[in-house]
Amino acid sequence: MMKNSLRLALILAAFSALGPFTVDMYLSSLPQIMDFFDSNTSMIQASLTASLLGLGLGQLVMGPLSDSYGRRNPLLMAMVIYILSSIGCAFASNIESFILLRFIQGVAASAGLVISRAIARDRYSGVELTKFISLLTLISNVAPLISPNAGTAVTSFSSWIGVFVTLGVFGLLLMGVTAWGLRESLPVQNRVPHNFMTLLKNYKHLVSDRIFMGYALVNGILFAGVFAFVAGTPFIYQNMFGVSPQLFSILFALNGLAIMLGSQFVKRLAGKWEGRRLLRLGLTLSFISTAALLSVVLLEGTLWMIFGSTFLFAVSIGIVGPVSVSLAMEQHGQMAGSASAVIGSFHYALGAVTSPLVGIAGEHSAIPFGIVIFTTSVLAILSHLVLIRKARTEYAT
């Protein structure tokens, strides 16, 4: 059983990794791409925004499709589109078509994110679902650590075109895994009719479920703090503290390992501790660590104080992430794809709000960074209190 769970987790983690690889792998190539298309910085940044929009919006489409047609067929379709759009990016003739293809590539990659969570819900429930999602989180968090370096490695012997050819090959491998290594997890009798009114009805049902929305918002708001961390630390570490690119990569990787540490903690305690207790622990740790971070930046503390605070915040993400997803999806097995889509879309929608805010005071001030990340912890706790605990209290009475 454990061997089968690990095999499935590795497969689903590979699909989850498609999003980070799609976003991060080409970042070191941005100057090359700008020169190739004789474009400007804003247009090149638009290609990044387009892929993030595709990843966010695509989940809202791919999730319901997988509820209606099963998990494998939408994944196969998405991987074909991903391969074609990746090759299209490599041979785009102008920046406008490149941006459009990046959006399509993001939509296709979103299938891996949303359907992998839905498959987990198909196969597991309760404590086993929490354990499996924590295992999936543990493995899939390797992707953000290696994807930027993988892009740099490719461009060391190729041009930026090689990055997108490599992504196309990755998509081809995942298409093969889908066709020959992934069994359908959603029986025909459990599928929902596919029409626009059913789609709206399902989303209305999910949005009106206060407990589901509470868990989804707790997850999405805290992950918006992660986006703020990713956007802010390159400038804070390197411009304010003079950290070298090599040391920055190490510090960034350690925060990724902190998320994995939190996920492993959940995996160990799931079944011994109730999921809601684990969630409260994670939220408490996020509040303490982000309050410490805000205090450090206001008092102009050292780099290592900032790093220590963000490390503990990353551990809290590793705890809250798998537990909140498991609790949110537990009661929505028949629309697991749509439920997964709502959860995943919050990451990118809320992350798009927090990322620009960390830089509003310029690249030499960490105060907005501290305020934004602390605010995400406070809002996550409020979501838990107002939506989850209040709703459970009302249902009990």
Automatic annotation (TrEMBL):
InterPro entries in alphabetical order: Efflux_drug-R_Bcr/CmlA, MFS, MFS_dom, MFS_trans_sf, Sugar_transporter_CS
Taxonomic superkingdom: Bacteria
Gene Ontology terms: biological process: xenobiotic detoxification by transmembrane export across the plasma membrane
UniProt main location, coarse: membrane
Subcellular location(s) of the protein: Cell membrane
Pfam families associated with the record: MFS_1
A GO cellular-component term linked to this record: plasma membrane
Record-annotated membrane-spanning stretches: 44-63, 75-93, 99-120, 132-151, 157-182, 211-237, 243-266, 278-298, 304-329, 341-361, 367-388
NCBIfam families named among the record's database cross-references: efflux_Bcr_CflA (TIGR00710)
Protein name as it appears in the record: Bcr/CflA family efflux transporter
